[in-house]
Fold:
Amino acid sequence: MTQGWSARDIPDQSGRTAVVTGANSGIGFITARELARKGAHVVLACRSEGRGKEAVALIHRQIHGADVEFRPLDLADLASVRAFAETYPHQRLDLLVNNAGVMALPYGRTADGFERQFGVNHLGHFALTGLLLPRLRAASGARVVSVSSGLHALCDIELTDLNSERRYRRWIAYARSKTANLLFIHELARRLRAAGSPVVAAAAHPGYASTNLQTAGVRMEGRRLAERIVEVGNRVIAQSAEAGALPTLYAATAPGVRPDSFTGPRLQGWRGAPARSSRAKWTLDDTTGERLWVASEQLTGVRYEV
Structure:
């Protein structure tokens, strides 16, 4: 990786189709916009139709001739995930960016009864990737990129309590969902390699980037002081969403990205240009990865055909 890699270095994406989840704001929006700027046809997969269509309109205003579209996707509802995959109109898919996520929310459950952070951040994307994998296999040089977090290092996954039913601690649940993202990419890359598939599965994280992800939880609880503190941190300490999106864009487009790689900001994993990022040893454990995979197939009802 070069020290100054930026969005200007994204290779030409003409003729390629990308799906970016959670693309209506923050890092997802920047990712979708920059892929479109380089010529990709980009599907903005978002829960809110209003915000999704506003994002499409904004990209059109910022980039003349951008080829983007909105399609509804609620990762907290497996029926919505299946509907998205069933109605996906293109024969192939060159790039799937599993970006959408929730962070440190009060305890809640998805439409299918899963703890919300685990259900959205991991299970929804696990199901989506499996359902779209035939389209990825039909493309040449396809990639799957999952957006994790440096906070995965707080803890390993708890296989006997995936839904945090024994005890819920919001930051621990978030960290476990981000560990699950890395274990998923590790196991997917292993299975793709064993099958001789050229599809590349990689992961990225944004460091500390200023997005609405940080304020969602405290806003839901009406904690105004905490919300203001987070907002100050976003303004003073965090890097921009544009900078935070660079590791994802690098993993998605740069030549030579290796399967199961983990890209983050260069400076202590906090901010800066994309670089190889350190990861906790438990995210590279084959046994845990396989056990989580089997559990995820059982919970979602999605069986992979790698």
Remarks:
- Strands lie at 17-21, 41-46, 67-72, 95-98, 143-147, 200-204, 262-267, 271-276.
- The longest helix spans residues 170-194.
